[in-house]
Design a protein that fits this description.
Rossmann fold; alpha/beta; globular; homodimer; 13 helices; about 15% strand; 4-stranded parallel beta sheet
Chain lengths: ~400, ~400
């Protein structure tokens, strides 16, 4: 494939595929320009490497081979809540439990191929865990920049892969720009949320959804939005499918934010093409840690993805997220993190507004497993206590006897 | 496919496929008797339902569709520790993070098809979580029998799917037998660890390993052993492959136990065909909760699987398990639970004894994700603190500058 970069906004092209941002200021992505034959020639293998020809590296050994290839599941139990026909694309079924593995599987080997023995990332959550795992698998050093006040729980999840962990004091939100400068100055690739090779990895989620649903095409793809990186990857995947002549109509990309930090929703509602960064005063606390981003680096591109596909951006409260998380488990059988549950809450909002038709196929993309931070042992759980020898009596009163 | 049951030991057959044990006392399994054409005709789809024709039910909707289809990954970082060529079959990438989903995906709909609206299980770990999730997905009641002293962490993981949770006082180890009696007396299928439909689900893991490695066949398949249910499923899968004429040589099934509860290792070393249940006095504490089973209901069948394939059973200590868990993460990029890490420790033991050849393909099967009970925030993690404006100086001393 071509390995040139281009800017979605001004159209400028660059040959250096380690560059992150265009001279115009917007983030770049890597061109693939697939044709119909790119689909016909796919190898018959599992996982995201079925689309190797459309990625900027060859399939590496190690944990990268376990990334992607997640199931898409028809989930009638969530139809009511979505207003359409619900499908779940369970990105929790990745090696580190999040879609981030698709990006790391491409971006970490890509950085190594470009000559960097050391990779890094700016994250205290799923991206940090994933980048550290993929670096470990390829036996490379990894430096993770976390905020000074990171929780012990998150620290432990990252530390298992033994990266160098640097607690950064000062304004953590400024680290995105710092990371690009540090990558230029020192022999390290700090793989930020919208590193172009990451975005290439993310687009494979759309290819898998397309292939699993064919000959039907999805009407709505709903995902949580934070930096705008995943939304960019989903849009790139849709553009690749269009380039290959496979899409009659674009799926509507619907992004869901937490009301605690929703610059994209505000910009979408105001008709703006760029989000306005939210100040610390405007930004609230939320259980949806993974998407509490007041200043998304790919925010303008995410908004363009939504507008290009006729989608929407909505915000939901923590209460709505909790209710949606419960529905994912109780009506769907899926354990998802709060940020992922937001997708269902967001689509419910759209359905209430009449923006989902009953026959629409609605693909919810829970981006991360709920198992990572569940099981604190602090939840109140209702149980009953029965002695072993009384179990039959108890079941008799609960269920009665078998008919003869 | 045929839906009759048979006994691996005495060969007796039964037409009632809800029966669990043979009159001879041993557990039953469901016959499939595949031929070579069973493989040629597989549909091109992801997940375990590629083998639908060899399963006793049709593919259901819901979370069952997300079970199996896990990646098999060449993992050179673990070659040293295995003494051969290491592959990881990452069963953590299941919807509830464990191979148990393969069993629940078949057994829960199978019980419903047999007329039971209520399912149950005897477990306080992965099997409970999985059974509750699959029942929720199909909108059926689920009753989970847990020990009276279950931890709050585990309770929370199970309770998210809202089954009825019964804390059972009295001797929890006797509940396997009770469960069979309760299922006969009341309109509930209590799906124990070796319910025949579960075993059918487990065999798909072997089919996937075979298909991913073809034309090579695996030399060693290493898994943790507790009840012997998964070992039985792996053996059934191997027998199906042989029946279809696809295997020139059987992979050696190697089972790994915790030294705290290792009746299978003791029986294997003593040349016995049946394990002797261990008393509470003989049974120790272990970090590998998932396999601390002193009285495995499918123990004799698991031993038969090992002997039939030329495999082995070994026990490992908690210290070995901790070291192996670290290696899985640091050298492989995989986060696995302690019971799963035991596979690597066990194969290392076999390698030391000269039972693994350098060119052997060794498939480690981590059966469950490590994310469920990790992140207590209590681990000591080494970090360094740097102010944002000093990061470049810090990277300069760590890594130097880029060459011009």
């Amino acid at each position: 494939m071509s390995r040139s970069l281009s800017c979605y906004r001004c159209g400028d092209r660059y040959d250096d595929d380690t560059r992150v941002r265009c001279a115009c200021g917007e983030p770049l992505w890597i061109d693939a320009r697939p044709t119909a034959s790119s689909w016909d020639d796919r190898p018959d293998r599992g996982g995201m490497w079925r689309y190797e020809a459309l990625l900027p590296i060859d399939r590496p050994e190690g944990v990268a081979g376990a990334a992607g290839g997640t199931p898409l599941v028809r989930t009638p139990g969530l139809d009511d809540a979505t207003g359409g026909r619900a499908f779940v694309k369970d990105e929790g079924e990745n090696p580190t439990g999040a879609y981030k593995d698709r990006g790391s599987a491409v971006a970490v080997p890509h950085a190594i191929a470009a000559g960097d023995d050391v990779v890094g990332t700016v994250s205290y959550g799923n991206m940090a865990i994933s980048t550290a795992a993929h670096a470990a698998s390829l036996d490379r050093e990894c430096v993770v920049f976390v905020p000074a006040d990171i929780s012990g729980v998150r620290l432990e999840l990252i530390a298992q892969y033994e990266p160098t962990i640097v607690r950064v004091s000062g304004e953590y939100g400024k680290l995105y720009g710092d990371a690009l400068a540090l990558s230029e100055r020192h022999p390290i690739s700090v793989l930020v949320s919208d590193a172009p090779a990451r975005i290439s990895g993310y687009k494979t989620a759309v290819f898998e959804i397309y292939d699993a649903l064919a000959p039907e095409t999805p009407d709505v793809i709903a995902l949580p939005a934070s930096s705008g990186g995943f939304a960019s990857g989903v849009w790139l995947g849709i553009r690749d499918l269009e380039s290959a002549g496979l899409l009659a109509e674009r799926p509507r990309v619907c992004l869901v934010q937490t009301a605690a930090a929703d610059p994209l929703t505000r910009a979408f509602e105001a008709g703006a093409t760029e989000p306005t960064p939210m100040s610390p005063d405007e930004t609230g606390e939320t259980i949806a840690h993974s998407i509490g981003n007041p200043d998304p680096p790919s925010g303008a591109r995410a908004l363009a993805a939504v507008r290009d596909t006729g989608g929407a951006v909505v915000s939901v409260t923590d209460d709505e997220i909790r209710a949606a998380q419960r529905r994912f488990a109780v009506d769907g059988g899926f354990c998802v993190e709060p940020a992922s549950a937001a997708t269902l809450a967001g689509v419910s909002r759209l359905a209430e507004r009449g923006e989902v038709a009953a026959d629409d196929s609605v693909v919810l993309v829970p981006t991360g497993t709920g198992f990572k931070e569940m099981g604190t042992g602090e939840a109140a759980v209702e149980t009953e206590a029965v002695h072993r020898t009384d179990l039959s009596d108890r079941l008799e009163s609960l269920l009665g006897s078998r008919r003869p």
